Amino acid sequence: MAQIKLSNLRHSYMPAPKGPEDYALKEIDVTWRDGGAYALLGPSGCGKSTLLNIISGLLTPSEGQILFDDRDVTALPPDQRNIAQVFQFPVIYDTMTVGENLAFPLKNRGVDPATIKRRVDEIAEMLDVTDMLSTRASGLSPDNKQKISMGRGLVRDDVNAVMFDEPLTVIDPHLKWKLRSKLKELHQRVKATMIYVTHDQTEALTFADEVVVMQEGEVVQIGTPVELFDRPQHTFVGHFIGSPGMNVLPCEAKGDRAVFEGHEVMLEGPTHGDGGRTDLGIRPEYVGFGDTGIPAHVTKVSDIGRHYVVSAMVGNTALKAVTEHSVPEPGSQVYLQFKPEQSRVYRDGWIATEERS
Amino acid sequence: MRTENQKAWFFVLPVLALVAFNALVPMMTVVNYSVQETFGNNQFFWEGLGWFEQILRSDRFQAALGRQFLFTFLILLIEVPLGIIVALSMPRKGFWVPVCLVLMALPMLIPWNVVGSMWNIFTLPKIGLLGYFLNDVLGINYDMTQQPLSAWITVVVMDVWHWTSLVVLLCYAGLVSIPDAYYQAAKIDGASPWSVFRYIQLPKMKTVLTIAVLLRFMDSFNIYTEPFVLTGGGPGNSTTLLSIDLVKIALGQFDLGPAAAMSLIYFAITLLVSWVFYTLMTKDDAQ
Ligand SMILES: Nc1ncnc2c1ncn2[C@@H]1O[C@H](COP(=O)(O)OP(=O)(O)OP(=O)(O)O)[C@@H](O)[C@H]1O
Ligand SMILES: [Mg+2]
């Protein structure tokens, strides 16, 4: 078990990358705490699989280092890193039984048969597959196949980290939550670092203690689900996490206030920096209705179960508000109130206000 | 659902009629000949299973059958492993893929008798490029028109040259269908190259390999044109394979009865061995 540190990591699939656009990963510096449960969240093509493959050693990065507890493993092949990886589509050795599948990684490492048997039985019990141990693996259902793929990763008791690359893609929705809770349970029992790749925010937020959000080859924020929701460091995080995502409204910044469509809005604190494009970021949950405030025109109200999403226009800018009661009619005129401690200015996408202490 | 199933028969009907016309009917005449004796004039005498017995007991048939099995055995023994090895070493992505595929397909595009003539001219001592090279440059005594061993080697090598590509292409199709994740998982599981072959590549190639073995068996067991053009069955009878012998009996000696009986025995053996191969190779899947 070890802490995994990625330092100044860059990777390009091209032999001679020129600009930053040629890099699948641009400058990554992340430390994964030993035993943590992480989710790696980001849209398709942002470099999540690339990052995992670099950690496991399937890919060698163009630049930078991977350190396991300060030991440089950048040049080591996968089988010497004690890393387990589970892929999007279950990988099963068709001609073997379930038991042989689980034993395979240990056998390849020359572990003695008694230990292999003990470990396989233990893992099978954890995964509830004990009764399948002697059946041919090729006939299993996708969710059981995926369980066996996970089992092959967990069977080694020296794994530093187990990485899951969108492992539930091919699983039926009603089995997804079962496997997901199984994973959480496994994490508590095995105590290895787990990194779980997904582009589904619900999956990420339920699995992880900490979420790493990526966009276009960069890590934009690392934090607990609550931190990501409450104080997005980048408009992308605000937009990507939460449903509906954060309102990003073009504005002008003036000290601890923003001017949006001619209306002054109190911010959480003073703005720093200057120049660039400035936006006001506020989550729909913190946009309220009142007798005074910013006048807006309601265009649509959707009932999404536990609450309502109100779409409104302020001048020429559209925004959304979430409310549980006092629902305005579509077409009506309302006054919006932005919660100051949840209103922030973003400069070129990055947060530019300071929290008032 | 049901009516659709019935309708399908109409589409099969023309094929059935065609097959009946060009295969079943001629086949029945063969059956007809095989149980009768004729001296021309359209006079036939009932012979029963006499021809079959005579053929099966004859040394000549047994020798030809032995040569045929030896030939097919050598062909499978060489072409299947070689085909797998070549398929494994072909690139899976990039510029060289189409180049390799075209190169592989080339020998198969050449007609049988052309292959026979090519190899004949190629291997003739003195005038053939290979014949000259082996004899006069390397000093190896090689003459496929005089020495049975040379003739055998030439016939086998010619078939390997002509048909290994079939095995290669089929295996290659099986290999490229394996997702990258399998190789990646194997690396992480610490599998050796042999394990990767044994537990990933071979199982994925199995279906196509079954087809390849069946096709190569049937083709090599029924081979006629190439060895006929190359050696004419000689020197002596050394490369007279079953089909060559059959043609000698049927068209050379015009012994229609024995030839017909021999055809049927030949056909039965081909069918039986194909069935055994197929059953053995697909046995595991049934479970
Ligand atoms: N083998 C490869 N060769 C060249 N480019 C690649 C290769 N694999 C990925 N890329 C590129 O690198 C970028 C990152 O890809 P990656 O697969 O890491 O994304 P991802 O976040 O895992 O996406 P997804 O959610 O679709 O799995 C993409 O632009 C992709 O086109
Ligand atoms: Mg991916």
From TrEMBL, chain B:
GO aspect biological process, one term: transmembrane transport
Keyword Membrane listed: yes
Subcellular location per the Swiss-Prot or TrEMBL entry: Cell membrane
Residue ranges crossing the lipid bilayer per the database entry: 9-31, 69-88, 95-112, 150-175, 260-281
PROSITE patterns reported for this sequence: ABC_TM1
Membrane as UniProt keyword: yes
This protein's GO CC annotations: plasma membrane
Membrane topology recorded in Swiss-Prot or TrEMBL: Multi-pass membrane protein
Pfam families for this protein: BPD_transp_1 (PF00528)
Protein name as annotated: Trehalose transport system permease protein SugA
Organism this protein belongs to: Roseovarius albus
Lineage: Bacteria, Pseudomonadati, Pseudomonadota, Alphaproteobacteria, Rhodobacterales
Gene name of the encoded protein: sugA
